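Quick start: what a row looks like.
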Amino acid sequence: MKTGKGIKSLTLVLAMVLTMATVSACGGNTQNTADSAGSNGTKKHVFAASYFTLNNPHFIDWSKGLKSEIVDKHGDKLIEVDAQLDINKQISDVEDFIQQKVDAIFIAPVDSKGIKTALISAQKANIPVIIMDVPPQDIELITALVTTDNFMAGKVLGEAMVKNTDGKANVAIIDWSVVQAVVDRTDGFSAAVKDAPGIKVVARQDGKASTESALPIMENFLQSNPEINTVFTINDPSAVGALAAIEAAKRTDIKIYSIDGSQDVLKLIQDKKIVGTSAQFPVKMGEVAGALVYKILNKESFEKWVKVESVFVDESNLQQYLK
């Protein structure tokens, strides 16, 4: 009898220990789930961004704006990749994001037309796409778009050129016509100079919006069209490449106008090496895009195309924009 009671007591103790261990294990799993979901128990979002290049301060600033809204403010995750000016790589990257089932994708397209394949894939997967900076040709395939007012950027640049040259200049344009944002900039420029017949475009060539591509283009312009005295580059890295070629040729009579408003070019304006640049505000645009994605996910009303104004910066207002 005594031995039987001892066995029964031991069995009861073991059962209690096993029950406590089970409860403890369940509690541990609950804690782990809460940690993965965030301190308040809500599911964390995962977003992805594909930039056509991160070899440009403009998109580094875009990234800062996105992170401030998505990571710092909301505590969510942002995956970022550099397409390296390669549309095929960008499409592949977006397809990877789709396979990962991210909550939304931000894209700055390498090619406004070529990105269509990736946009169709994202739409089929019901993943919202917010385009950054570069409008695609197929607006109906995207959820939203945040850009500079690119037509305005080209227009204020053209107006400044007409004023500074008294409406007379032999202009070289370093272009990138496969990108809709650039087309809008050059259209704005054309609208601004159309009533100034003395503004003549004597050379024009596509680059890849980079310093490395602009330098040899400008070298060729100087050899083939020595009458050039004014240059319009569609972004600041191109302006830096053009300036390098002009300085190497010891030409001091050529005035450069650009678009971006990067700190590097603002310093060149201060040094009187570049006339001016139509400033964009990429940190602000990144913040706007970051806030926009939450409106989309929460099914709130939102503006499909947000255009942020551009301001032409030269010596007259430079101090307002230098850091």
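That is the whole record. Residues 1-40 have pLDDT under 50 and may be disordered. The first strand starts at residue 46 and ends at 51.
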